[in-house]
Amino acid sequence: MTGFSEAELHGTAMAKTYFALIPSIVGEALFGRLLAIWHDSWIRGKGDEPLLEQLVTDQILDDPDLGPIARNVASLWYLGMWFQLPAEWRNVHGAWANDVTFVVSPQSYTEGLVWKAIHTHPPAAKQPGYGSWALPPVTTEDAS
User: Fold this and answer.
1) Whole-prediction pTM value?
2) Which sequence spans correspond to the domains of the chain?
3) What DSSP line would sit under 14-50, residue for residue?
């Protein structure tokens, strides 16, 4: 769902943190359901990217219970922040104490996928090094 490989996600060292965090926000049952449907979609769509995207859209993103959670999980990986779930979702599932907008940790900020996606470093963290400003930015074509 992020567009990054499993190795890249594990390379952030945030997988275990996020895996433990999410059920504390939305509950074990919904988190388990999300994981089960994701796994089923992954198995059924493996090797067929258009099918996988359609399965994820139909079974997860368009689902009124799972869609908001899944979008938050993707945002969590990119920004290192959890955003409070929509009021409509909370009206159906209840307001969980941990479901507030917050930055997970300083590490989640610096390891956010957004920085890799835009080929830069997080401001005030992971500086690129003295004089690096004199070099042209790396583009997607350069990285290939």
Assistant:
1) 0.85
2) 6-143
3) -HHHHHHHHHHHH-HHHHHHHHHHHHHHHHHHTT-HH
